[in-house]
Fold each of these.
Amino acid sequence: MMHGREFIVSNQATAKHSKTLEEINSEKGSAGDIPLCYSIRSSVINTNFLPPGGGIWITHGQFIVNAFATAKHLDTLERLNADANPESVLSIGMHSTS
């Protein structure tokens, strides 16, 4: 169940970086202890307007990172997504030139 502040990782990044994502997601704590940051590289979905019992559809193969780990590792999660999705507009400027 999603509660807010989670990061949904793309199918491609999940397949390419699953071990790293599992390690990041294993970190638990209170997300409220970490200031909420926004990024121009990630879309925010406001679920406050969903009806009771409503939900978000994700595709098979996507990975949902818990809120605490998202708050702590947002930059890394965005880099992993960009690395696996070089054609994405959100990944512009995030790739190494090597």
Amino acid sequence: MGRRRVLLRRSSILGALVLVALAVGAGIVAASNVAVGLSEQSGETTVPTWLYLATGVGVVVASALMTMLVTDRDVIANFRDDAVAFPTTRLQTAGSLLLGTLGIAALVFIVVVGLVGPQLGNFSAAVLLTFVGGRALLTIVAYTIGSPWHALNPWRRIAVSLPNGYATYPAWLGSWPAVGTLLALVWLELLVPLSSSARALVAVILAYSALTIGCAVVFSPETWFRRGDPISVWFRLYGAVAPIQRTDDGLEVRYPGSRLSDDDVVTDVSLVAFVLVLVWEVTYSGFIVTVPGVRTVELLVALGIPPQIVYLGLLLAGFALFWTVYWLAAARTRERAETHLSQRHLALRFAPPLLAIAAGYHFAHYIGFSISLWPSLVDTMAAPLNPPENPTQYVLTSWFGYVEIAGLLGGHLLAVWISHTVSFELFPGRLQAIRSQYPFIVVMIFFTTMSLYLVSAPATEPVYVPG
């Protein structure tokens, strides 16, 4: 009974701290979609410095308590292993056929409407379906419910119907093509007016389609969409956060995030890099639309560096910073745990929890964006070639910041808990397991605090970006 009371008291303290953090941080998250250029409202709220610092302190304290709350290995194992399986072979076959047809129809729709329909982003069903339906809403579905992309992927459907498998995919390539292509797509989003010119968006989609289908034909669809295609890797990793998981026998329902403690989510260094890109790309989109980011870009351009190179340099420099910090944490964990496990092995096992942080980032940045532009998407989809003159946009209420900050901090706390679970799986000693996770928790706090700082800064228009 005494142990139960202690656990209850600690849980109450943790809950109170989380509520304080939510209350302090409410309203400071601003959807960093100014670069996307679709929403007329930036949603920013200027707050005093002490507010987001107080929020960061609340997150730090809550994270520290999280690692001390539960040390019972049976409880941790139950979270990791409990699952309810649903053999749904026939249902999966029918659903795969339906979603596959829908995916191809959506791709054709975007290309046709993008070429012959309205060109302005807010009036183009092609642009809205891509950014609101795909990048925002479908990704949110992937990490909150389960990823449907394996069945929905139109390029996979096309590739499997063609002769394929002409070459062996080099093992040393890993998922580096996906990492490089994702970074290139983030950069292209700034250089090319994808949200203001539907034809420019179609041109990029057609080029991407040719590259993706071509590589899938050469290396086989199974290999390419597992390792080389950034969109497939994107949805597969985000989908690992969700409670519904696809298995060989059907579907299984697990605790949200428990899949991230498995050792087959991140299997090589290139996937560690992809996870870090997922965390960094949302942070980057926030940085370039804040006053510090704009001033940094203007300063570098004033030195004679072309703006395209400046944006690319900032993108790669930020990723290099995240990469360096993460591997330093892996090295420090090996020292603190005094383990024979390699730095590489520790980096692979502690990378999946960062996907919870990436999901929290994405939710905080895109949920308001999605809700605001959802009516515009519906209006333009109903009449894609002749949309209404003023597509509807919702105005978010003042309290919606609570939802956004909850997503951000919820992702952080889930990541800390998964790291806790992984550490107890890796190390036999209780103290050893607790000590081992601290460097990675510090990294998570670093990522979350940086995101809180960026989203609390007033948003502005990015400079030297085609509108």
